[in-house]
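User: Can you model how thymidine-5'-diphosphate sits in this protein?
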Amino acid sequence: MGEKGKFIALEGIDGSGKSAHAGFITDYLRRRGYTVFYTEEPSRGRIGRLLREYLKDESTLSLADAFLFAADRAEHLQHEIMPAIKEGKIVVCERYKFSSFAYQSVQGQDIKMLKDIHFFAPDPDLTILLDLEPKAGVERCSRGEKFETEDFLTKVRDAYLDLAKEFPNFHIVDATPDKMTVKDNVIKVVQDFLDNNGHPRPDQE
Ligand code: TYD
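Assistant: Here's the modeled complex, given as structure tokens:
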């Protein structure tokens, strides 16, 4: 088995560009010779698929949402993320437990309870928060889905900014500029992190 891998999470409100930047990070790292496992939450596993279906109904109970997200995450960690890390891969995960802490607390769930039910979920080695004005987020996604209103996302953004102060290894990247500028800034954070955390560049070995 190779050396222990790394766990990078991407967080941000709907429309902040997580998918695009997760893709950019993955491509960049693969080009440099790293082995990357790209994944996302809700996961593509059974609970994740159920959850995506469940969320189409606007009237779902937020406590049930909270438990389903946590259950999906437990399975995702056990079956996909931890094995990839043990194999020495760099895991790039779009959304993780901070999505639950931010979204479900804004839905009215107690933040301590949300943290408690995530007792099994380790902190990532690096979390990148793509920070964006909610107005821009709503304009960029505008699919009219649950959670995608300016008022709701304003509170989610504030919750994320608080989490960034509370948890270690959080880096905030301003997602307002054009995509390529944000990409350069995100990649710099990732490369600095790898350089400073004993994960050598394969192309320099
Ligand atoms: P996401 O996959 O980002 O949306 P999409 O597939 O439509 O691009 O996540 C779906 C929604 O679920 C999104 O609005 C954020 C929300 N969410 C939570 O409320 N809590 C969580 O723990 C997660 C992972 C997502």
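A couple of observations from the model: The first helix runs from residue 18 to 31. The longest strand covers residues 6-12.
User: Helpful, thanks.
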